[in-house]
């Protein structure tokens, strides 16, 4: 009798995990040990009953752009029937009793039995939490006995950051042993644990699950957005996919999706379910959110769709002879994209890696020898993966890694779409640089009108945050320019543009907001701020205008500064006195929520209030639109 048969009696009798081999001859029911540390040997605890009392709830992990269920995380429930408060307490007691591996193996067996009882279970993966203390131990579950039989098991082991791996364990070697069983690897609770980037480096995971701390309120927190965007960019460059944990609002969903996260898990999509009958393979809430998003596909999406090479992929379970036929059939193909049974990319196989077989005396026979393994997985190399809507800057970042030399795999809706070659990327970079140079003020190097309009349109579509869209211009600039010369006029424009750039660059840290600065032309500027507290944004705008008034005094001689003004002709040719140079602004405030506003409405509000701004004591007129 195996351990699993004994402990699962009456629930899923006889089920096996497919990964943890049962090499404990003694059944759980026969072992009675100290119930909890410190209670003494007289107190015994029936671990078979405790494990039997627990059950699993499944929470879906869903593709952000398609709503397709990628997998389920198995979450333990029923601790009130065991005497333990939670999984951590139970596993701590099991470790103290010397039974951590045995208990974890049995719990995983229950989860796998429930998973494989699902209709169409092999269409999704099962994410199982693995106690970090078991990593590197010989009694750990999921150490392969028969790797060939366990391939494509659909299991992903989550290594939680909440506990450290035992000191001295070579994580990379330990993880390789789990991979040999066919299991994928995920880092759970990333960002709040013990090892952080070190675990990411050593484990080389397939997935990183970003902790809920960084997802909660991410739509209104520029620092969280910056961190998640950077992580997504680096992860994709290494071929790692990102799961956003704890997504609970539509604005968090949109933000995570737009920052490059691949999957989401959270109450917005579905709560964990103990009743596992009728679990959907697609989630309507995600489809509805994407359908309701009024924004058009990005320029990056359109161009990537046009330039990627839609090379036909090969399934990882294809025979090696099919691989030879693939390269023989198309002499121009230097790589073959490899996907799993659900068209999810696994990596690339390079034609040049086959030369050691093709040009060796018995190479062809070796490739055809089934005894050496007939699948392709041992030839696959990891490659960067980017969604087709990934901003071009992040695609370029993904290309900065050595593994990207042969191209980047592009996915759409979580499924393979094509490969972006280095040549295609160079064309995209050239196009972007040319467009930036065309739409950039030659004096200030700030974005011009086209970029400003795109920013306004994006802000109006972003209903999850409040926005302040500000038009800024100089007061009485023409008399100043005519009287003191164009060179001084250019100095004033550059002086203000530098203040504006510094203001926008510091907005994230100072007021927790995203800021965009643009130059409409001449002495007309634009500043867009998304997020942050409205009162703080407006206060800093007033400070910006005051600082420029002070800066502008350096443009005059001492006598003019003392007098506080200068004589010059007005637009009608009459000589009159003008005050020292200053700037004023109209700040259009748009609160969060749906409003139906258009760029024309913003322009009209600005035009109607320019005079009021110039007459205001602090040089700022605030207009609230809803």
From TrEMBL:
Residues 465-625 form the GGDEF domain. One of its GO terms (molecular function) is cyclic-guanylate-specific phosphodiesterase activity. Residues 37-286 form the EAL domain. PANTHER family: CYCLIC DI-GMP PHOSPHODIESTERASE PDEF, SIGNALING PROTEIN. This is GGDEF domain-containing protein.
